[in-house]
């Protein structure tokens, strides 16, 4: 273990992860407060959650809110950038598909 890697169980400041749960297309996904919705999905093993007009898979590209590759519908609001949106317990994420085939 490096000097910079401090486990939550030995954090001298007493920080503790506060768990949360969101749903992605109806499936429950666990996260912790402080994560963005994109990091919750990435930590769940999802590399993409949208299909672009060319049929390609889209997820996080820039990670700083510039490219809009990471958009999804959150609590009924479309085109939310998941890399900028702090995850909140109970958020409902719905993936988007803008494939030209539709
Ligand atoms: S990854 Fe580029 S805006 Fe979210």
UniProtKB/TrEMBL annotation:
Which is one Pfam family of this protein? Fer2_4
SUPFAM superfamilies under this entry?
2Fe-2S ferredoxin-like
What is the protein name stated in its UniProt record?
(2Fe-2S)-binding protein
According to the lineage, what is the superkingdom?
Bacteria
A molecular function (GO) term: iron-sulfur cluster binding
What does the UniProt keyword field contain?
Oxidoreductase
